[in-house]
Amino acid sequence: MGHKMVMRCLLCFLTVLCGSGVLLHGESLALNDNDSLRMPTPGAFGLRILSSNLVELTLITTKEPDPAPVTEWNFFKPNGALLLPKASQFDAIIAGREVGLKVISFKRRPLYAPLKQRDLRIGNYLYLQLDEPIADGETLRVLNPTGNLFPAEKQFVALKDPLRRSPAIHVNQTGYAPNLPKKAMVGFYLGSAGEMPVATASGFAIVDTTTSNVVFQSHLTVRPDSGYTYSPAPYQSVLEADFTAFDIPGEYWLQVPDLGVSFPFKIHEGAIASVARTYALGLYHQRCGAANALPFTRHTHDVCHTAAAEMPLTSFTAVNSFLAEQTADYQNEPRHTAPQLNNVNSSLYPFINTNVLDVSGGHHDAGDYSKYTVNSAQFIHALIFAVDTMPAVRALDNLGLPESGDGISDVLQIAKWEADFLAKMQDTDGGFYFLVYPRNRKYEHDVLPDRGDSQVVYPKTTTATAAAVAALAQIASSPSFQQHFPEEAALYLQKARNGWDFLDEAITAHGRNGSYQKITHYGTTFIHDDELAWAATELFLATGESQFHDQLLAYFDPSDPDTRLWTWWRLFEGYGCAARSYAFSERSGRQLETELDPVFLEKCRAEILAGANDQLHFSRSNAYGVSFPPQTKAIRVAGWFFPINQSFDLVAGYQLDPKPEYLDAILANINYECGNNPENVSFLTGIGWKRQREIVHQYAQNDRRILPPTGFPLGALQTGFPYLEHYKGELGALTFPSDGHLTSPYAPYDRWADCFNVTTEFVSSQQARALAVAAFVWANHSAANEPWQSAQGTLLGVPAEIPMNQEISLSLAAPDMDLAQAMIVWEAKEQEPFAGPLFTFSPTNPGPHWVEAEAVLPDGRRVFAMTDFIVEYGEDLPPNSYLSTALPVTPEMAALYHLDFNTSDATGQQLSLQLSGKARFDAANLGWMAERSGGALRFSEIGDYATISINNSTLFDSATEAIVFDLMMYVSNYRPSTSNVPIATLTRNWNASMELIQNRYFGPIFRGGAQFEISGTSVSNALPRNRWNHLRLAIGKTGYSVRINGDLFAFSPSNEFNNWTNPQGFSTLTIGNFAGWMDEIAVWNVKTNHTMTLSASHVAPEELKLSISGHPGVHYLLKNSVDLLNWTTISTNFLVTDQTEFQISIDAERKFFKATSIP
Q: Which residues are paired to 938 by β-bridges?
């Protein structure tokens, strides 16, 4: 048949199943419980022995965007019907003997789905029940002989070690304090089979991790959940392990016979201190108007948002659009009789001060960098309540903050930082602005705080004013605050009085209902009634003046169900603040009990105790002890739920009635947040063995690290997945059992994924409440007077320079500190996070690298260190196989940029490249060259690029056969973006362009004019990261082509070459907007036409032998036609030699053939 040739179908590509996560050099796909901070990549797999006769097979998969189907382990139909594989598809071998099995269950849930770029990783879990038990010390191997479920190279093998980690055993990973209740839970969700049965008779043991000796044993008790109304109800088989009686400090596992052991945990005097200090660090990370810096954190940034804010005008489009959007539902509140506040001019309270205003300070409200007055006031209340009513909390001066050790309460100074900001938010008429917000958009979603937007304040409202009046009066009347900051106390009280005057005038002018205008949902639950009651309370307690007392008694009845959210959630927002402050007036050093109304006082105390009893009841009705309301269970929703924050009412109640049950419930909530939950996840960043990386927080979304800053609470319960642009509705649809199934939904406390979900976003007032809770437990039940501010860590073993792919090992040290008991978390450029005393890794890219360590000791003291080093391109690595020497100037070149530390065009026809952002030259990575010399152009981020206008007269003339754009390219990373950005583009106009761009949804794509586009994993696979690739984009008379390292990657017929034929004007060349290097940029006006001859002869009635003669190494496009006018492409053909022959089946009517070269 003649010479064999290579043929490719047009735009037909082999797609390799992989996510955008990179499998690092040497990384195994076998799952490893000892590396719990690593995110499994698609293809990862594992076998886990849950018990002697129950095993779990795990496979991590991915999928292309809808409508692409699931291609692996798709064991259920779209209607939810389960299609389990048959037992005959598996072989189970225990210690060499084959045993029978049953396939009993399946569950599937997305494991990872980041916001900024699609990187979907799906957890698939198949459960097999063995006919014979596995004994300790025996090895189980599960095979799939047909290979239809997993290939033979995936070795599903596990040893039944009695000390193997069990996902069914849940502990507080931060640890437990001696002399306090210590409880853990046992339970596991199997998906379609419900809960895993565990016998209570087996009991449990505490095992020393150093010696593996059992040091304590006790029994397990059933702790069923209540409140869910569907059947079968979830969490009826959860068991509680109570080891309160064991107090010996040390590190331990909790072991359940036949199941294995928990994550390691410590019994330590500082266990609760660790939680408190972690929350304090989280608030430090939220500080606005200040830098975050070493030695207090590794998540650093410069001073942020110090520019004065503007007063918005009608010309501020974003502000007025936001007001119209947020207030569109104002008529849903019957008492909202005032006009809709749909623009700045519709406010009842015009701006008196029209100058810019300093609103720096305070704390960023949540995951965004805004600051809400109502939440700011709640923040201050929680911390000042703790300082004034809890002497041990007031004494804490060792939280590890810049102000620690100065003799003033750290908690008080955190509150002052917020109050200093709040005091600035007042207009000259006494009213307080509702919000500080970006001037021109809702969220600063693509910048770190020190690169934040210009800001504005939003109009004054009675809700914001009343809340600010209350908080400023409360802190002004704090004895501790008056002692340390007398001038500020006097100023704050005067501002509170001015604010009250504003409220009095507003209500007089417009009425109690008519004075209220809504902006956002903050502070709208009881319109402004609760804030007014709270303001009257605090002013009365601060001044003793009867006018405020009379207002309070007239408008607030703490026993009225209408002062509770949904009539059952007590102490909500302003009403709760008012009740607490009044009930603790004498204890806080304000008004004596004899000066209070005894009936009202009793109602406040009763409501506080009732609120504590509610949280206790919620805890007791929960299998895991968390105070999740049964009322919420009944409607099967969850969101914005933070367990330690939920304990604030328990702390208040405990101070009135120190019942052990209250303390037990507080600790149960702390335990849940710190890992004692079905997923073994820490819902407080910076602690625990299993941590979430994708959170709703703008700093975390934009910094260089994988792990978010320490100290942020994450919503511990969620209804399900959100709609995210990169995934649309895929995440929920992939889940099995479905979250919304009527009778057998996915177990509600197991609904976790490392995913951007706004229902898990905290606000800073919840951080403050949680800090108060943790500080109270720590300061009242453990030693809390050891001085601490910070320590300077040092990284040992960091080289100044190192060749890429060479292994290095680093350790952390700090002066006069023993870090042997510390958990040290490491992060480095292009490496997965790792926990351990020694960090061994191999940098995979040349250029500047960074590495950081964060050590947390058992009592929450932290040591940070970070440094940079240089990685050089390995001398032993081969050059690029296609191009390895600098190009000479040739007549067909329109431009040639060698980029050897200059931007000039070697042909002399074009101007110099213009560099933007941090685009710069270096010689760290010249690995494409056989003889390395000169330089290359390096980029780090979107915004780092180079551009030039190419004269079109140099691109086209009457002899032009093709226009070609060549370059060398080394990609370290593509940067996620919110819009399409050019990476390598030559553009004349909308229908005359050749482009490699970073698409906001699909990553890198090739595009040509209006007729050519390729996206998907085929593109990123063809341009592998961490290596030099030669890229050629071309448009010729036959169409568009893309070549990578000389090989034709794609060709698309097109007639758009005609759009390049006008020699007038300029085309724009742009390169950059990614992390990596480019070199040897060339643009060609190709005039060479690779001619060929084509002959044909019949070998059968419908078989034709074609012979092509031409230039070896050139791709030709083969076409046929009936009429010589309309041509149909048959194939693309690559000539290995100067001639090739092949046979083809033909339609009898198609009589004409031609072959043309592809550029």
A: 920, 1077
